[in-house]
Amino acid sequence: MAAVLALCCSSVPAFQLSPSGTLIERQRADLNLPWYQRFQLGVAGRGVHQFTHPVHEQITHRIYGCMVESACQNPDSEYAPPTVIAGVRWNDDPPFRLNGSSIGQCRVQETVRVITQPVCWYRLFKDAEQKSKTTFFDADNAGGNLMYRSHFGDLQFLHAMAAQDGETASVTRERILMWGEFAWAVASGDYTGAQRLAEVPLTGFSAFFGKVGWTVQDLFSLGNPALRKNLPDIAFGSLLHLVEDSFAQGHVERRDPLAGERCPVGKQAKPGRVVSFHSYVHQDHQKHGDYDSPDALLRGLLDPGVNVVIVGQTLKAMYEDKKDWPLVRDYLECIFDLDDPSAKADAGAGFSLQ
After folding, report:
1. Torsion, Cα of 260, 63, 176, 281 (10° steps)
2. Quick check: is 235 in a domain?
3. Which residues of the chain are under the pLDDT cut of 50?
4. Considering the domain boundaries, does residue 100 fall inside one?
5. Does 165 fall in a domain?
6. 255: DSSP letter
7. Contact 146, 209 (CB under 8 A)
């Protein structure tokens, strides 16, 4: 089992996640502890760059005030709420169900996540990876399979990435802001769990979720009743994940911040402008992973004026102060200010397959 999981996870885009998940996930998955300990050892021993180090969790705990390295690396630390951490993990491991499958290890009608159906998840991931060379996964070709779409298809904006080579930076940014508006509406309570995704009146949203027949509750907490009362935190965590990924070089190429340039919100230092968003399918996955590591995070924190933690802390303050979307939008537009709106996505310099 550990070997299977180690093989599967070396090709997933985004900052790395804890291999053990969080307490709320482990309880729901009914994990057998000895098996899971072997799983963790197998992942760590093979240098898997996705479910190996709790980088996303570490960033998020830092955003919530953690200053002690060992505590920041613990997914169950009492800094960021566990429901926010669950939302941060959602972008990489969204829950979905299968209507049918020829894969014997897949339990149809039970929620699929890497932590609940690991072998099934692995087999599906490898299928998506292979088919992505000739198939574009969207609502027509993958339907409700969010894993296919978020890692290899039309929902790659959840990782601050373009859906495919050639997509212009302005299109990717528009989709990022669309998700930001949706997530903020859930985080603010404007959309409840009963809100049907097909009826969300945001420009462009129906192209991604107009055919799946889900509610907000289905989207964020499928198969995990413990999360249903905390959908605002889940949505906010998802937005944090997207913003965190935008500071990973495998996802986004940015210019260096300009001295003295500030965002209109709080007059905070402005991050470097986005030169281009990258697309994942034709990247060298190992090179991508090298820039999603703990070392890459620490290098990014060297700039005391503007870094991923400072940006996250600004968003956290807005969330806690219940700021209206227009103010949040202004800040996100500043974070994702484009150097050239017509710039076309590709693998990125130094990330292309040889």
Report:
1. 110
2. yes
3. 1-14, 16, 19-20, 32-51, 288
4. no
5. yes
6. P
7. no
